[in-house]
Amino acid sequence: MSDWPGDPIEQLVGLLARLPGLGRRSARRAALKMLMQPDRVMLPLAAALQAAAAAVQPCRICGNLDTRNPCGICRDPQRDRGLICVVEGVAELWALERAHAHRGLYHVLGGTLSALGGVGPEDLAVQPLLARIAGAGEAERVEEVILALPATVDGATTAHYLSDRLVGSGVRVTRLAQGVPMGGALDVLDEGTLAAALKARRDL
Amino acid sequence: MSDWPGDPIEQLVGLLARLPGLGRRSARRAALKMLMQPDRVMLPLAAALQAAAAAVQPCRICGNLDTRNPCGICRDPQRDRGLICVVEGVAELWALERAHAHRGLYHVLGGTLSALGGVGPEDLAVQPLLARIAGAGEAERVEEVILALPATVDGATTAHYLSDRLVGSGVRVTRLAQGVPMGGALDVLDEGTLAAALKARRDL
């Protein structure tokens, strides 16, 4: 190992350590593993990074990241264009897609309102959402907006704000159900979730 | 997110997921973070990977990975050439270098002997080590070999094997001390370590 700055190994470790989930220690392990077999992982990864950086961009309609613009979801004729699911970020959009549970379109807000964090409506894609709903043609009229926002104070604030802004638009506004997660053991669940699950109980 | 194979995003996630310490979930998070700011992390990382793959190679003397061959440590005139520290892999070499505790040279074995894993002496850099000791000139005579091998059954087997092979070479063979790690709470330490630490106790 060499200690002078500009050393390719140290530079690689430094960049890997910036990725979420990798600390300096695991970045070093990852670099080492790659250095042992440069052709199998290292050069393909370099090529993949360049290809993705060149090809991927935010969708101008919904904010999803994709190689096409509008993105594959917005272009998909099978999707219900009357149903828009509002999410905080692209990570949440991808998670919902993996669940194969939503057959409509999406709208990426780019965050949630936060008084403490100084995030106001003008910092989020609120105006584009309203414009999208107002501007939809007769055939593509938006019937329902599903607010799939985090179950946090900021998420709830954002949901209330959006629901206020949508009053009078004729659009139905819904939010995700709260309750016990699949496979979740009751004794490790927080009280808030338990209370919400009990309150929203359903007949068998 | 798109599902067709050959999609740049999926390809990038797949390659990132092969790194140690990154599962598929964290690979996706890392890819997403990079895609949000391609110029700050993605393209520099691609360049660093290519630079390191092109520049880094195993040292022909000790087996360390470096941009120079022989490596920076083997070239360093300040290093004690009479002292060789034998390590399992480059990761261990780097860890010892970070500790700034060894002022001699290294020798990377490339593993440990393992009856179960089918690893014999011919699979490790044993012969190069013996040749290195036998071939050293008068001025660079090897005085001591420190076996810095893991405190496992395979590590101990390897240490015994090497120490046998070095009998009669006139070289002093030592191994790392075993005991309580710095800051280690006694109640969570395994019994083997505790017994070893007690046996190797020293006067204050």
UniProtKB/TrEMBL annotation, chains A, B:
Coiled coil: none annotated. NCBIfam families: recR. May play a role in DNA repair. It seems to be involved in an RecBC-independent recombinational process of DNA repair. It may act with RecF and RecO. The gene is recR. Residues 82-181 form the Toprim domain. HAMAP family: RecR (MF_00017). This is Recombination protein RecR. It comes from Belnapia mucosa. A zinc finger (C4-type) spans 59-74. InterPro entries: DNA_Rcmb_RecR, Rcmb_RecR, Rcmb_RecR_Znf, TOPRIM_dom, TOPRIM_RecR. Pfam families: RecR_C (PF21175), RecR_HhH (PF21176), RecR_ZnF (PF02132), Toprim_4 (PF13662). It comes from the Bacteria. Belongs to the RecR family. Keywords: DNA damage, DNA recombination, DNA repair, Metal-binding, Zinc, Zinc-finger.
